[in-house]
């Protein structure tokens, strides 16, 4: 099926400050961050989800399998070989996989956004559509995730993706729609163990 939006979940990092990969984290109720994040993307309107793994990829794939996503033909998993280079490497790996598909856009999100739910995904998706869409969620005026990138932006975003800044330089140099979501979530990510209880 052509068109539609593919979720692109970046979950490759080693989580140095966390003490381990965020792809292996669980919330206080024992729900894996990976399971929740994939579910949020589908519930918010994505037609497929590509998960980019890196650090402890085998264990992370087991988490996906235990959560039932491995048998879902709407879910693809790619391991970024150069994941240690940062978020930019993960973004490049994910977009290269999506290039072979038929989606008009990619909704890029991160595995470590515990309060970003399906309502945020729906709002960002509703703010743009088609291969030229470029929409970024904001929280209290600060840019965050998810980011909707139409297909026409993929090659440029991948080419400029660098280190842990991801596609920031590309987004900053293009006219994009800012989508305020602070009434729905804080958009905060978790970087340290104490953030899990905060």
Explain this structure.
It is built from six helices and seven strands, in the order βαβαβαβαββααβ. The chain has helices spanning 33-44, 57-66, 87-99, 118-126, 154-160, 168-172; strands at residues 5-11, 48-53, 75-79, 105-110, 134-139, 142-150, 177-180. Strands 3-2-1-4-6-5-7 form a seven-stranded mixed β-sheet, sandwiched between helices. Helix 2 (57-66) links the parallel strand 2 (48-53) and strand 3 (75-79).
Based on secondary structure, the structural category is alpha/beta
Low-confidence stretches: none
**Beta-strand share of residues:** 15-25%
Helix count, DSSP H or I runs of 4 or more residues: 6
Specify Rg, calculated over alpha carbons: 15 Å
End-to-end span in angstroms?
41 Å
Give the H and E element order.
EHEHEHEHEEHHE
Estimate percent helicity: 25-40%
Number of strands: 7
Q: Strand sequence of the main sheet, in spatial order?
A: 3-2-1-4-6-5-7
């Amino acid at each position: 099926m052509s068109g539609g939006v593919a979720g692109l979940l970046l979950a490759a990092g080693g989580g140095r400050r966390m003490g381990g990969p965020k792809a292996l984290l669980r919330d206080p109720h024992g729900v894996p961050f990976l399971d929740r994040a994939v579910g949020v993307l589908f519930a918010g309107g994505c037609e497929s989800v590509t998960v980019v793994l890196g650090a402890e990829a085998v264990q992370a794939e087991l988490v996906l399998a235990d959560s039932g996503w491995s048998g879902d033909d709407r879910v693809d998993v790619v391991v970024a070989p150069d994941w240690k280079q940062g978020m930019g490497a993960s973004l490049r790996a994910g977009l290269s996989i999506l290039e072979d598909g038929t989606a008009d856009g990619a909704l890029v999100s991160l595995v470590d956004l515990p309060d970003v739910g399906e309502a945020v995904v729906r709002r960002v998706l509703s703010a743009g559509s088609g291969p030229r869409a470029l929409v970024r969620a904001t929280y209290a005026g600060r840019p965050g995730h998810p980011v909707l990138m139409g297909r026409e932006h993929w090659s440029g975003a991948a080419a400029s993706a660098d280190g842990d800044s991801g596609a920031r330089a590309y987004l900053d140099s293009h006219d994009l729609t800012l989508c305020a979501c602070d009434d729905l979530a804080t958009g905060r990510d978790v970087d340290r163990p104490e953030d899990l209880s905060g």
